[in-house]
Design brief:
Elements lengths: L1 E9 L5 H16 L10 E6 L9 E7 L2 H9 L1 H11 L3 E10 L1
Antiparallel strand pairs: 1-3, 1-4, 2-3
């Protein structure tokens, strides 16, 4: 199995409320992919609670193989969430994939 972990750093927001609303929208969009993309075995989106750290969102997903991860990454529903919800507010991204 492959675990795919992605960290997102968001751009500055005019308020914490605006940031929180954006984060909730991203969470709903990403977690809404479960059941729509057959190769996606697990998905969870969480938010950093430590203000001393710089990353805002963690995405954890699981797949049977790297090929399945690639299928997910290129799936039209995933691409839409990435472009519409994440792209406009993303300042940075880090990723690690590992077997477990």
């Amino acid at each position: 199995m492959i675990r795919h972990i992605v960290l997102f750093k968001l751009k500055e927001f005019e308020s914490e409320t605006a940031k929180s609303e954006c984060q909730q929208s991203i969470k709903a969009g990403l977690e809404g992919l479960f059941g729509k993309i057959s190769v996606l075995k697990f998905i969870q989106v969480d938010f950093n609670c430590n203000p001393a750290e710089s990353w805002d969102i963690i995405l954890t997903t699981e797949f049977d193989s790297l090929d399945d991860l690639n299928t997910y990454a290129n799936h039209p529903d995933h691409v839409a969430v990435s472009k519409q919800l994440i792209g406009p507010v993303k300042a940075d991204r880090a990723c690690v994939d590992y077997t477990f």
